[in-house]
Amino acid sequence: MNKRKFWSFAALIAGFTFYFLLNEPGTANAMHIMEGFLPVGWAVFWWVAFLPFFTLGVLKLKKMTKDNPELKLLLGLAGAFTFVLSALKMPSVTGSSSHPTGTGLGAVMLGPLPMSVIGSVVLLFQALLLAHGGITTLGANAFSMAVAGPFAGYAVYKLLMKVNGREKLAVFMAAAVADLMTYVVTSVQLAVAFPAADGGVLASLIKFGGIFAVTQIPLAISEGLLTVLLWNWLKSYNPNELSLLKRQTKGGSL
């Protein structure tokens, strides 16, 4: 592994992170469901749904780092990539905001269970430092971005690699699908919590999904392209670590 190249890239990621910490506004109307927005019952429900994935993810990460401690650098890179991309909030034409998620890369490298831990830690820091999301809604936000997105992206990656073996296409689709699935699940979460007076949950789902789709589809495509570029960089400078990760996830292990 070329440590100089790795740390130069890590410094770039850290620089972007520091920039957004300094320039992020105190409040945020973004994809993450804000503090106190969900009814208590739904907030508790999504916490309960998320925690089993988090527990399994912690066990998976402990095993990975115990067997191969050198993988900790790639874990940090996956976390930094997710933090920076998901902090890039962009105004949408609907008056809300939208952003990439960055979880597709980690799902491809590590599998979806480790990303349930990494993604939730990212969301916790964003809630505390950037007022982006919240603590009561952390379970809901983590389920959509750290569970549903990575699992969907990982499934698409494994399927495409099995069907045609085109790695770059598989990585692109994994990142894009992980991004889009996050917003699909968020739309469902908001729809079931706030059904429309006329049309119920379905009408509300169409409304929220339509709002997110305007900005999120092009963002998902952009995230897919960026993830492929980073994947190529990792293959050039960290082939040994990626090979270790590939062996650990071989055979469909999560």
UniProtKB/TrEMBL annotation:
It holds the Pfam family CbiM. Keywords: Cell membrane, Cobalamin biosynthesis, Cobalt, Cobalt transport, Ion transport, Membrane, Transmembrane, Transmembrane helix, Transport. It is found in: Cell membrane. InterPro entries: CbiM, CbiM/NikMN. It is a multi-pass membrane protein. Pathway: Cofactor biosynthesis; adenosylcobalamin biosynthesis. Its main location: membrane. The chain crosses the membrane at residues 40-59, 71-88, 108-131, 138-157, 169-196, 208-234. Belongs to the CbiM family. Forms an energy-coupling factor (ECF) transporter complex composed of an ATP-binding protein (A component, CbiO), a transmembrane protein (T component, CbiQ) and 2 possible substrate-capture proteins (S components, CbiM and CbiN) of unknown stoichimetry. Part of the energy-coupling factor (ECF) transporter complex CbiMNOQ involved in cobalt import. This is Cobalt transport protein CbiM. It comes from Paenibacillus borealis.
